[in-house]
## 1
Amino acid sequence: MADRLNRNAKPTLTTRSLHPENKEAPFPFIGNDSVPTSLFYKRNHFDYPSLTYLNYWLPIGGFVTTPKVFSMQDLKNLPSKTLKVVLECAGNKRSYFRPKVFGEQWEKGAINQGFWTGVPLKTLLHSVGIQKEVTEVIIEGYDKGKKTGSNTLHSFKRSLPLEKALDPDTLIAYEYNEQPIPFEHGFPLRLIVPNWYAMASVKWIKQITLHIGTFKGPFQTEDYVYYPHVDNDQDSFPVTIHNVNSSIQQPLDKQILTKGSHTITGIAWTGLGSISKVEISIDHGTTWSQTAIQRSVTDRYAWTSWTYEWVVEEKGEYTIMAKATDTNGRTQPLTPFGTEKGTDIMLLIK
């Protein structure tokens, strides 16, 4: 492998499956504030839906006072906001799990960051009137199909607790990086739920329903669920908030370096609070050194970039480990639970 990352190369997505289309971002190339559409990972459960902007309407109903149907122009006439948000697939880094687990074998590239513009979902819910007993808000996408091992046709649906749906930063988005949302990523409308794994950010929104009780859809109770026990479903609970996490971007795994000074770079992110520190270990976790992190006061839903200057004086094989800690006291563990395992890299110094 080359001694350094070739920044003149044209990075592309890595295909994990074709039907449905699932493609991974080239992780070393996505450290900027805003990832371009060409490097935005693709995650689908079914084939892409067929719909157009011209006949698009958004109905909101269920346990509401006044059901309404919104046109795209209606939405664009409402006050909007723009947020920089990390979207991460709940299965990111799955390929590193031992033993192997079912699902797309993502490495580190099922993650994205960019600027989303839209209307707070709260604005729309208040306009239709929320009945007193409502507990959840169900968002249904136009994408549908048969789940693996099932003959039943399902559309992709997820629910949010009413409190999260009313968060002023939960958006019905219509733009990504100041352009209409690309079709592959949810055009014309996509839900954006900051700090939650991306399965909550439903694409191609078909309708919104206010619900009393607990929604039992398969993408809420079967998939995207933590199962603490290997042999049974006891104590299982749904995936929601990002775990604290970090990943190394440079050097590359199995890269060959020379003795001397090298800069280790990466990103860290969390769903609670913000990143307070990122640490590096070169001795398999015996000792840890703090990195220099780039804190952002305004971008509360963005990842944190970090660097560490490493001086290598001896030849040999090295393993670099990284772990992040957030302001809520959560530290990235060394063994996986769901999605938060760190990814070590191995190097040869010549």
Note: The mean pLDDT is 90.
## 2
Amino acid sequence: MPERDTHQPLPEPELPGEPIDPFVEHRRLLFGTAYHLLGSVADTEDILQDTWLKWRAVDQASVAHPKAYLVRTVTNLALNHLTSARAARETYIGPWIPEPVITAPTAAEESEMADTVSTAMLVVLETLNPVERAVFVLREVFGYSYADIGGFLDRPEATVRQILHRARSHVHARRPRFDADDAARKQITEKFMAACHGGDLNALMELLAPEVTLWNDGGGIVTAARRPLHGPDHVARWLLGVLAKPDSAGVRLEPVVVNGELSIVGTLGDYRIGAFTYDIRDGRIENIRFQVNPEKLRGIQAADRNPRTTE
């Protein structure tokens, strides 16, 4: 990846009546594309910075289709980064969970990333190779044609179709199937928070599926479980133990829409220190992903600093 020019901020939105720079016009789309490929807010913003530098350096008058040029650029930069990141994740301390990002209703309504995939889906996408992931995201999430994707990735259309077929089969075999509607998810979320705040072990265990698993990502920076936890008793006791520690005093659990689903964030003072995302089946929580790595929490801070908005 080229050295980043930290002295060149991304462009600000133009004033009414001024021509819109294509990078500004499509910034949310570019963010969404890179985030779906990388699962990292920080890395996505780095990719956008590199894309802006390339866009600034090119003869823009010679670019017939700026949107396609920008999507192609951000996709290939993300692919290059993802290839190296996959190697780094092999030595990551503890489970690796994608970075959560707040998707508040107001942000979703104005964003081309409105249908952000859930954290569970991002975990599934991690099992694809970089090119399969790019093809799947560009086709299934953003609806690009096979011809467009072939142009972005310098591959024949027939090859793109074959790659998508493999990726779809892989994703469909691993994609979680859950049945909670919004009302049920809200009710279970409220009960989960009440049980945690009240230290009620039995109530918490009642909410957890028999096969519940918890993954905890601390990245070796903060204390976290380095192996998945299994079973209602083990998971519930561990959660209540974490919340009972002295350094957890004053932590508030709050319902927040994260990655398109009602989830829970832990707040200490004015700072969000962790995010619970989870899946629900048959009225119980089946999987819990607990992100506490402070380097991966930028996307769950206050909604007015949502990284999907134009800065």
Note: The chain has two domains: 22-176, 182-300.
